[in-house]
Amino acid sequence: MDYNKFNIEEKYDSYKNIKNEEAEKIIFKLSQNEIMELDYDSIILKSKMYLKLDKFKEAIECLKKSLSFKQSEEAYDLLSFAYYEISEYKEALNYVNLSFKISEDEFLYNHKAKILEKLKDYEGAFNSYYEGLKFLIHNNKSYGDLEIFGENLERVGNLLKEKLQKRIIRFITEKNCEELCNCYIRLLEIIIKEEENDQYHSFNTANNINYLHLIEIGRQVLLDCGYFLELLNIYKTLYKVECNLEYEDLTYVNKDYIDKKIKDLIVETEDRTSLQHKEVVYLQVLEEAISIGNKDFNEYLYEKGSILFKTLKYNEGLEVLRKVLNDSNAKTSIKIKAYQCIIIGLENIGIKGLETYEAYKDEFSNFLKTKVDEVLKDENLTLDEKCNVVLEQCDRALNMNLDNSYWPLKTEEVCLFFGEEYEETPTNQSNFKIIESYNKAIKIYDKLIQFNEYCAHGYYRKGRAIVLVLRILNSSDTTTKDSRMVHDLHCYSYSEVIFNLNKAISLNNTNLKYFNLLSRTHFEIGEYEKALAYIDKALTMDEGELYIYLNKVFILIRSHKYTEAIDALLRLSFKNTSIGRVKKTFLPKKDILNFLMGIFNIYPRQEKIYYLMSYYFYYLSDFNYKKSLIFINNAIELGDDERFFLLKAKIYLKNREYEEAIKACEDAIIIDDHYDEAYALKEQCINMIAD
């Protein structure tokens, strides 16, 4: 590559092939002719011959004389070249600058850069090569020409970066922040210009400067000296660096890195200025950060509005925060902080009764309602994520005293919803995971109780969740390993269950579920008399509840009161029993079957026993069509009860024998023509056939 291609003498090469003897003859002839001595072209020709003979002083004299006739680019160029050759670089620079005022070309840029290098002004030389490269690109010059300038740009850039690096380290040690900031900006501008044109020069990693590290080691000095705006300006310049980097270099510096550094600077500035009550400085830094328009734009707007409120500039603060609220791209968390800042700010200045204050409370409440509904409907969120966000917003609304006709009820609703969701954990998980979910449910119920100490259902659900934990721990399936894993979880005790259920009953003694669970709790710990007392209270509310009545029978069985258990079973009214609110029995399926088989052996010809046996195989256990049908037919043979026929119809329906089910319904209706349930079941079967 011809790096001398753009030397200034190459621009005027008409005398290049003239021999020295010929040059001397030309000078002699021109000197003898007085007329030619007064001719501009003759003087220029004479000066060129002197340059050919390396007689630079004589050339300079002639060239200066030519200027009296005409101030030309050619004269200035040759003067600059002559002074350069005799090492008078300042004069050379002066004349090349005069030439630039007339015109510009790649030769001038190259020549000027060489002069500046000689003067050790590497920054000026770098900029001259940079401007020359831009000139070539603009004029569509060849890649070879561009590469010459590109290589020179890199070479001088490396010298300049090394020089600036040394100065930066020195200024950090001296804590000369003014010069330090200046050097940082100059260094980054050099890197920007290099990266803009990196395709025109080779990349030499040996001369690569770790500029991010240089900034980091000087950062603390700048912060300690209060140079917040200057440091922010350095980070802003990094964005320009990032814009020109190749893809592989973005792992070194990228927008996320710069955004984080600016965010850290904002936090640091707030901490330092707040201690010194220099809010004006902090606002200036925020203004600069806002002007960047990065991803944290709205967060900085909020900070500005917050500071304005703190400094009692409410109208200005309200105007700024309104921008945050109106921006559809602003994060929910930022908008929430903006609403809180406005409402608390207006409250603090004693204008709670004004329309503005109430309007913002209503607007904030509606905003939170919308966000809660969005989260509840979002299928991409986990249960934990939904629960955390929704309960956080409910807490916020309650603490801000928003819409008291809505948020207390909504909080209770979502607490019960999430608690039940955690209670319905899939049973195929480990005991640790199941108990962990139950613990989450209990914490939610605690939150509900703390918010509303009169919420009976909150105490009931908490007691129920604790029972679920205790049943796992007391199960024969729980291994030693499981016990070790759940050691760190809160596992509670039966006394806590009883306390919570009694509390629920004291607040609401009309819910039979509360009594049923309290009865079961005493049943599980062997306190059968108390269990019987509470199950009787439940039956006084609705003696038609089948499972509750069965639970009473099971308590009597566990109490070894077998005669009373059988008598209670035989007194069971089958016509009015309902299956709705309570759907579980105290005993497992296996124990229920053993008990029923025992009664069956004692009382083999009792229709109610047959009915219960049939019902067990129809509903309480896995459906067994043959056994349930055999037992219900035996019941019908012994007793003409419409309820027996209805159960028979249900058995047929479950087995998809719709015609037989209709016949059984009609038999039930014959016995009781007001039997609404039989009519409804018959119509259902007819519709199934039609479909």
TrEMBL record:
SMART domains linked to this entry: TPR
Family annotation (InterPro entries): TPR-like_helical_dom_sf, TPR_rpt
Stretches assigned to coiled coil: none
Annotated Pfam families: TPR_8
Stretches that traverse the bilayer: none
Protein name: Beta-barrel assembly-enhancing protease
Organism: bioreactor metagenome
Lineage: unclassified sequences, metagenomes, ecological metagenomes
